[in-house]
Specification:
single chain, 182 residues, mainly alpha, Arc Repressor Mutant, subunit A, two-stranded antiparallel sheet, disordered C terminus
């Protein structure tokens, strides 16, 4: 069953879900981060039907998350390697892992993230790259960006207390010559 496409929606969450929104896709990426590269490795780990796996691998290649590389000519065999875009998905997986451990593992965590040097268990948080401050509801919010449509502005309630219309008027008159305001 094909879902409605989110590709044309302006929302970056919707566009991301268009690429990795099916659970098989996320689990394939998980296994790729754990070192799986070949069809048989993914199939064995996931116990997924070959046709479903083929469809998901093709979609992840098309989305630029994985690259297909031929490793055997006879018989023709390919492996799937993470691209830069795919590797950038790791923090999302770690956030899902931490969230799942916190809310859906009454028996305790079955997988944890550890420091490679010390082996200490990590508790991931999201931080702002510029200020290195933890991003919490109390300190950050989403807001319309420079390419936002009117609908996006309405959904997010404007930017930091200024209305979209006031901002647009300021932008429109910024480059105007004195006395030429309409």
């Amino acid at each position: 069953m094909r879902h409605t496409s989110f590709e044309t929606m302006q929302c970056p969450i919707a566009r991301s879900l268009e690429r990795v929104g099916e659970w098989w896709s996320i689990l394939i990426l998980r296994d790729a981060f754990l070192g799986a590269t070949r069809f048989e490795q993914f199939q064995k780990s996931l116990q997924i039907a070959p046709t479903s796996l083929t469809r998901r691998l093709n979609a992840l290649v098309e989305a630029g998350m994985l690259e297909r590389h031929r490793y055997s000519e006879r018989p023709p065999r390919e492996e799937y390697l993470l691209t830069e875009r795919g590797r950038d998905f790791r923090p999302v997986l770690w956030a899902l892992l931490a969230w799942g451990n916190r809310h859906f593992a009454p028996e305790g965590p079955s997988v944890v993230i550890v420091d490679k040097e010390t082996g200490a268990i990590a508790d991931p948080i999201l931080v702002d790259r510029t200020t290195l401050r933890p991003m919490t509801e109390a300190t950050f919010r989403s807001a319309p960006g420079p390419a936002a449509t009117e609908e996006t502005h309405q959904r997010h309630g404007g930017v930091a207390g200024t209305s979209h219309h006031a901002e647009s008027k300021t932008t429109a008159t910024r480059g105007a010559k004195p006395g030429s305001e309409r």
